[in-house]
Design goal:
The protein is of the alpha/beta class. Helices cover 39% and strands 16% of the residues. The chain contains seven helices and seven strands; from the N terminus they run E-H-E-H-E-H-E-H-H-E-H-E-H-E. Strands 3-2-1-4-5-6-7 form a seven-stranded parallel sheet, sandwiched between helices. The two termini are 32 Å apart.
Length: 246
C-alpha cells in the first residue's frame, strides 16, 4: 500500500487529472494536492474523498513550501511521503523574433526548474522517512519532450514556446541531470528520481491543439508511476512507460 502521495500544481490540468486518477487506486492512503490558492480551485475542492488533503503551497516561495511541508509532515508523521510528483509549472510566451521580455523569459526558468529543485529538497526528510518505512520512495518530475534536444526534430511548436522549451531543456540539462544526480546521491536514502513526459495535452498550456485529453495522459502517467522501480532511477519516460532520450 502506498501510504502518501504529494502532487504539486493540482488545481487544474495535468495536476488535477493526476489527483482524480490516483484516487481511483484504493491502495493509496493519503493524497496531498498542493495549489497556490485553494479558495480559487473549485474543481479540486469539489472532489469528495476522505483521502484527499488540499494544501496551500506556492512553489515559488520558500516560506510557503516550508509551511506546506510542515503541514503534510504533521499528518504523515514517521511514515513520511512515498511519492512526490513535481507537476507545478508555467508558460510565459516569449517571441524570439521580437525584443525579449527578460522578466517573463526568466520566470519560465524560475518556476519550471528552480522551484522544482526547491520543493524536492524541502521534502527530502519526509521522503527519507517514507523510504525507511517502505524500503524506497519516489520523486516524479513531470517534464516535456519540448525541451529534449534529441527529440527537437519533427513537428516544431510555435516559436513563442522557445523560452518554455529552454526552461525544459534546462530541466533536462539541469533538472534531468539533477534527476540523475539525485538518483546517485539519494540512493543510499532509498529515494528514486524519474522524469516523465505527459505528452501534448489539451490544457491551458497545451491548448486545444493537444493530441491527448487530460484523462488519457494522466491515466497512463498514473500507471507508469506504479511501474517505476530501481531500474527506472534517473531515467526519462513517456507517459505510456516508453523510455525517452534526453
Amino acid at each position: 500500500m502506498v501510504k502518501s502521495i504529494v502532487v504539486t500544481g493540482a488545481n487544474r490540468g495535468i495536476g488535477l487529472g493526476l489527483v482524480k486518477e490516483l484516487l481511483k487506486n484504493d491502495q493509496i492512503g493519503k493524497l496531498f494536492a498542493t495549489t497556490r490558492n485553494p479558495s480559487k480551485s473549485p474543481e479540486l475542492q469539489s472532489i469528495s474523498d476522505p483521502r484527499l488533503v488540499i494544501v496551500e503551497m506556492d512553489a515559488d516561495s520558500n516560506s510557503s513550501i516550508g509551511k506546506a511541508v510542515e503541514q503534510i509532515g504533521k499528518v504523515v508523521g514517521s511514515s513520511g511521503v512515498d511519492i512526490l510528483i513535481n507537476n507545478a509549472g508555467v508558460l510565459y510566451p516569449v517571441d524570439i523574433n521580437a525584443p525579449i521580455n527578460r522578466k517573463e523569459a526568466s520566470k519560465n526558468f524560475d518556476v519550471n526548474c528552480v522551484a522544482t529543485m526547491a520543493v524536492t529538497f524541502a521534502f527530502k526528510e519526509l521522503l527519507k522517512a517514507g523510504a525507511k518505512k517502505a524500503g524506497h520512495s519516489q520523486v516524479v518530475n513531470i517534464s516535456s519532450v519540448l525541451g529534449s534536444i534529441s527529440l527537437t526534430w519533427g513537428a516544431v511548436p510555435p516559436r513563442h514556446f522557445t523560452a518554455y522549451n529552454m526552461s525544459k531543456a534546462r530541466t533536462y540539462a539541469g533538472l534531468n541531470m539533477y534527476t540523475k544526480t539525485l538518483a546517485m546521491d539519494w540512493k543510499a536514502d532509498g529515494i528514486r528520481v524519474t522524469a516523465i513526459n505527459p505528452g501534448w495535452v489539451k490544457t491551458d498550456m497545451g491548448t486545444e491543439a493537444g493530441e491527448l485529453t487530460v484523462e488519457e495522459s494522466t491515466s497512463n502517467i498514473s500507471r507508469t508511476i506504479f511501474k517505476l522501480g530501481e531500474q527506472s532511477n534517473g531515467l526519462f519516460y513517456n507517459y505510456d512507460f516508453q523510455p525517452l532520450t534526453w
